[in-house]
Specification:
Blueprint: H1 2-15, E1 21-27, H2 34-45, E2 50-56, H3 58-67, E3 72-76, E4 85-100, E5 111-112, E6 121-124, H4 130-139, E7 147-150, H5 153-161, E8 167-170, E9 182-189, E10 192-193, E11 195-203, H6 209-226
Parallel strand pairs: 1-2, 1-3, 5-9, 6-7
Antiparallel strand pairs: 3-11, 4-8, 4-9, 4-11, 9-10
Length: 227
């Protein structure tokens, strides 16, 4: 029976020519290791599938998904779930900041929004999305300081290393250790970690075997690392 089931799955998979490419979008500020592991595991199981990957802000990824530019996206939840999409929840992850190890706050075990209110916040966003990111961090998350912008996470970390501000990050799975010049500190409110909801999203009309398989691999890896 196992052999028959495997043969059936292989036959269905090979016959789906339209699914020979898997296009994945993820947040520019994402730095967890599980996405890389999921891509590697998926490629080993389905070597015939060409994987393309693109990074963007939340709104850039949403536009790509809405217009068919990607098949699925790994992103944070910023609006109510839509019935037009599969909202595949992964985990609620803790918010942290990275700032220069020379900064006085680097010795703290945690910080609040009030603690970092006067320190510039370095957001990872393209020039076109800077206003949208600033609005979200100000009006939804409650950040109150000035904002600086970097095109990618590496640039943002270099800015933080030079003492220009801090980079907000979410602990989506296993994060690599911070550079020796930076300190990663949990962000709390009323003594409790501030968390964000992370999901894999894809259009219900575009649901396919490979999309569901990749989402399942990624969630399994994240759950394994959270144990």
């Amino acid at each position: 029976m196992d052999a028959v089931e495997k043969l059936t799955r292989e036959t269905i998979r090979i016959g789906r020519d339209s699914e020979s490419t898997l296009r994945i979008g993820f947040l520019r500020c994402y730095s967890g290791q599980e996405l890389h592991e999921a891509v590697a595991d998926f490629a080993e199981i389905y070597p015939e599938v060409a994987i393309t990957i693109v990074a963007g802000t939340h709104e850039e990824l949403y536009d790509l998904l809405r217009t068919g530019g990607v098949d699925l996206v790994l992103s944070d939840q910023r609006r109510a779930f839509s019935d037009e999409y599969v909202n595949f929840e992964l985990l609620r992850c803790a918010c942290t900041i990275e700032l220069s190890s020379r900064h006085p706050l680097s010795a703290r075990e945690s910080v609040t929004l009030e603690d970092i209110g006067l320190i510039p916040c370095i957001l990872i966003a393209s020039r076109e999305q800077q206003n949208a990111e600033e609005d979200y961090y100000t009006n939804t998350l409650g950040f109150s300081g000035n904002f600086l912008f970097a095109e990618n996470l590496e640039e943002g970390r270099l800015m933080a290393t030079s003492g220009r501000g801090f980079v907000p990050l979410e602990s989506v799975g296993t994060l690599p250790p911070p550079q020796t010049t930076l300190t990663r500190i949990p962000l709390v409110r009323d003594g409790r970690p501030i968390t964000r909801n992370y999901c894999v999203f894809w259009r219900k009309a575009g649901t396919g075997y490979y999309i569901e398989e990749f989402a399942g691999i990624l969630r399994s890896l994240l759950k394994k690392k959270s144990i």
